[in-house]
Amino acid sequence: MQSNRRRIKDAFARILIYICVALSVALLFGIIVYVMVKGIGSVNWSFLTTVTSVLSGTSGIAGNIVNTLLIILITMLIATPVSIGGAIYLNEYAKPGKLVELIEYATETLSGIPSILFGLFGMMFFGTKLGLGYSILTGALTLTLMVLPLITRNTQEALKTVPASYRNGAIGLGSGKWHMIRTILIPSAMPGIITGAILAVGRIVGESAALLFTAGSAKLLPPDFMGLLDKPFQSGGTLTVQMYLSATSEGDFDTAFGIAVVLLVIVLGINLSTKGLTKHFDLTRKD
After folding, report:
1. CA distance linking residue 89 with residue 107, whole number of Å
2. Cα separation, 142 vs 209, whole angstroms
3. Distance (Å, rounded) from C-alpha 13 to C-alpha 159?
4. Beta partners for 61?
């Protein structure tokens, strides 16, 4: 009797799990199909390689793509070494105690703060106090604060998964602390570190609220290479900012859905890259 009840409960739980999985897949598929149907007609070579101009009669997002790439590059160049260094210190050097608990608590709290508050802080501190104004650099510094907790926590968890025997074996063979971290620990934890970094890129790509306060919304292409070097100190709207403005201020839903298609492709590419790189480093570590 009890065995039959258990069997019924297991079957009911399995059905619920399948229903939840089906709903999740259907929701994802529905969003992808809806965005593609609405926006794919707006995406063409001109849309991707020109900027919006009334005089030229063009409607493009090339300037926004350049701005997005610059913000990703600057943010990751600052955030990645700081985050990985902080995670290594917390995991390998710092002694467990109040200080480590405080740092980890602060990190977790930072990850839960609404992005618009980061934007307000970035505008007042980086933009006004440091005199950077509305610029890509101001936006990148603000986003650095936002993704630091994400990369740090992922790196910490990745370091914790490395077996203690790897550390003990390296040190037992005469390796120094830093040499062991550099040659054994970091390569072994690389899949988790890369996952955290790529997730951070995904958050940067999808951010808009903080950038509206800090980076502005300019969408012009730099005229030459020197103009590209000056671009970080100028205002620049990313793809998400332009999508928001197109859908709200300008009422241009065709452009908004076209940008949504581009963002969707970028996000899918990031997820596939995460899986591919993680699998590659897993195979490398096993070899």
Report:
1. 14
2. 11
3. 35
4. 51
Q: Return the DSSP state at 59.
A: E
Answer for the pair 142, 124: CB distance below 8 angstroms, yes or no: no
Tokens 């929701």 correspond to: 27
Residue 39's nearest CA partner among 208, 266, 255 is: 255
Place of tokens 């590059």: 73
**Listed residue (169, 171, 176, 249) closest to 208, CA to CA:** 249
Give CA–CA dist 261/39, Å, rounded. 6
Neighbours of 100 (CB within 10 A): 14
What is the distance between the alpha carbons of residues 92 and 156, in angstroms, rounded to a whole number? 10
Does the model's pTM come out above 0.85?
Answer: yes
| Each residue's pLDDT expressed in tens, for the chain with a length of 287 residues | 567 778 888 888 899 999 999 999 999 899 999 999 999 988 888 888 888 776 676 778 988 999 999 999 999 999 999 999 999 998 888 888 788 888 888 888 888 888 899 999 999 999 999 999 999 999 999 999 999 999 998 999 888 888 888 887 887 777 788 888 888 888 888 888 888 888 899 889 988 889 999 998 888 888 777 788 888 999 988 999 999 888 887 778 888 999 999 999 888 888 787 777 777 766 666 55
Tell me the H-state helices in the chain: 2-39, 45-49, 62-88, 98-112, 115-122, 136-160, 164-172, 177-180, 186-206, 209-214, 225-230, 239-247, 253-286
- How far apart CA 80 and CA 198 sit, in angstroms, is 11
206's CB contacts (< 8 A; 6+ apart) are: 240, 263, 267
